[in-house]
Specification:
alpha/beta; four-stranded mixed β-sheet; 2 helices; 8 strands
Length: 142
């Protein structure tokens, strides 16, 4: 079963003004293992690497899903935190389970709309708790 990994890479990047600057960027990758993450991010970045390149951080994220789009206006990634509310059949008490997803969108409002559209047919009650912009440069699906 694949997981979502947050990967930080450091490399020399040509800026818009033509200068070269060392940057650290964060990517979200759908992968099976840390070794696969390193291999895939290195292959993905080969076209952009001028000088030194290194993977500086790797961690398994707590993201449960990614809502991706090909919409060119959707150029940012947002973490959307929401809860599902279910009722325990034995006790009759409500149980709340929080989840995080990443939504590719153009703004906070657009991320909210895409979240609502994605989960519109879900049979359980969902409560949107927070939407925040991430530092992800890109998402690399499996």
């Amino acid at each position: 079963m694949s997981k979502y990994f947050e990967v930080g890479v450091r490399y020399e990047k040509t800026q818009e003004d033509g200068t070269v600057k060392k940057v650290t960027e964060t990517y979200l990758i759908d992968a099976l293992s840390f070794s696969e993450v390193e291999k895939r991010i290195t292959e993905e970045m080969e076209a952009y690497i001028i000088g030194e390149f290194s993977v500086v951080t790797e961690k398994i994220s707590n993201i449960s899903d990614v809502v991706n789009t090909d919409d060119v206006l959707a150029d940012k990634f947002y973490k959307v935190k929401f809860s599902s509310i279910t009722v325990d059949e034995k006790t009759g008490k409500e149980e709340k389970q929080s989840q995080l997803i990443v939504v590719k969108a153009s703004s906070n409002d657009d991320a909210r709309d895409r979240y609502k559209q994605y989960y519109k047919d879900t049979p359980v009650d969902l409560v949107l708790e927070a939407v925040s912009e991430t530092k992800y440069i890109d998402y690399i699906p499996y």
